[in-house]
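Chain X:
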Amino acid sequence: ENLGWQTVSAAMEVGWIRVGIALALIWTFVLINIRGTKSYERTLIPMMYLMFALGLIVIFAGFFFDQSEFLSSLPKAEQNEFSSAISPEFNWTIFLSASALLFSSFIGFDSIAQAGGEARDPNRNLPRAIILAIVLVSTFYFLFTAAVYHTVPWKYVEQVAQAKDISAPGLLAHVLPPGLGVAILAGAAIALINDLPAMLLSVSRLMFAWAEDGIFPKRIALIHPQRKTPYVALIAAGLMASIGVLGSHFAGDFFLGIDIMVTSMLVNFLLMCITLLCIGRLNPALAGRINVVKNQWPRRIIAVGGITLLSLFLVIHTYKDLSTETSAWYFHSTFIWLIVVGVASLVFIFKWRQLKSSGVDLKYQFKNLPEE
């Protein structure tokens, strides 16, 4: 709308167009993943640089303007409404619930771990990549957030968020020239799109590993004859992502999918912490190969801290979901997550019993890493 593209803006509000774009992006990145790591690298790295470059516009603009300039740019009626707004009281439940939602930002670390088998010297490079990502991305996020709130009063953000979805481009559009507003909106879109290739990569590798272990249909582990990628697993991951898009669309709530993902990630990281706590006793040989935090006691402290914090976030996130009023039970993300996990558990039990009856040494198979 800032550039006078009202027709385009109106089209973006049409449900089937938005769903069509989402599905097109999913299957484009499925094909890119199937083509292999080179194709993946050539697509993702330029997008990453572009995302950071456009995000820097927000940082510079946010620190260039101040709150008085932002408030003076608002329409008079909106200024009066904001000035009469009551400052909200701090609420621990809301604070912890928002903190739980931040786990959707950690999906990249999960993806790194799942694709570790395809990395060069993963014992050395993966920890370095994770530490570097934490430092760089956290610094970028803090600067980005500080810049936005340097220009936009947080009370205004809280007030407007009660009525509609908001974004940094939408908030800063009041003080930025139209071209820059569109540029940072493009940066936000690229940041979201960047998640897709990594999610497809990690999910497909998980499914491939399950199929190789025999607890998932063997066909999922088929490798493309030329590209040497798990193309069946990638297609299956694309189908599941498409179902998620359609489900969120028909539910009329994009955040239904986000809430399901947050629950999954909290449980996933919780299981990782439990594994870290127990691995020295249950699998000492594998524990001996841990190169990061080699001493057992610091690992236990990290594991117990993670279990405590993640359990708290999971309880708060689940309580918030179940206490929210919805028009039907299936609009609660917790119930959808339980149904999916229940079906997956039945598949696992069935395949586990099949393996056991066929004489497979399950203890040996699942206590030893497969050959790369």
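Chain Y:
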Amino acid sequence: MALISIIMPVRNAGPFLSECLGSIRNQSITDWELIAVNDHSTDNSNQILKAHSKVDHRIKFIQNEGVGIISALKIGYQFSSGRFITRMDADDRMPSHKLEILYSILCRHGQGSLSTGKVKYISENALGDGYRKYEQWLNGLCDTNNHYMDIYKECVIPSPCWMMFRSDFEAIGGFDSDRYPEDYDLCFRMYAHKIKVEASHEILHVWRDHGGRASRNDENYADNRFLDLKLNYFLELDYTSSERLVLWGAGKKGKYLARILIQRNISFDWVTNNAKKVGLYIYDKKIKPTSTVAQSNVKTKIILAVANAAEQKEIVDSIEKSEGFLTIFKFC
């Protein structure tokens, strides 16, 4: 039985897999097992995994019986034995102290907590602006250690940079969920079960961006999947029908969310600061000016779906200065 179990789906990671495996084998803490699940790779990933598993008994190499990351994670977990659980991406790298730091944080804070740390993106080509911003945002959350405040904005726990007690992991449902994006769904379940996030200020994961990443190519990571997941968890965890609901924004995201709310017969006010859209009917729903948001003394939950970053900040600042009956949830 190993101390730490690392679950790693592998699909066509050949160009980066040996470097990834080497970084795992080079960890300062040595009591770990790697459950590498080959998800029907068509490159040389299978041969690389076989070669490494022959020279290091801590590497377990199995084939995915289903198809996709969720299936690979599930079967990988079935073969794991560690008291602590983490996962890894097959095209990334671990700094040599990653497992030791994540483990030591959990030892200090005990059950009911998860450990994470800062990340660094790398790319053989020019790194996209979106990845740079996501890296900065994630690392800023580690500085404040207030991750859940922005959970509806984006996944606040990097999928290959966390560790949990096995007992806590199973209590929140582990990899049992079939909902994509699977990492964001797991993050919401951490939030729902009030698992406390404890972050290191050190870079603990090197995230590689390349053209073959699933997040770039798999339809399970399309924008609408993220919006569906956010809205479902918001309605489940942070909203009750007795409260007033406001949808702020009538752009692409706002329209998508409005359509779902209407389909689910959920009452809401729809507002925008775009003068050209105020007074219009979209999906038979009248769009009102933002001045109407504060014209009520009832408890109000606001879904913010505004794309422009400067506008977002202005709106959030104004809401935070309100008298307290307005609560904003950033979906952007």
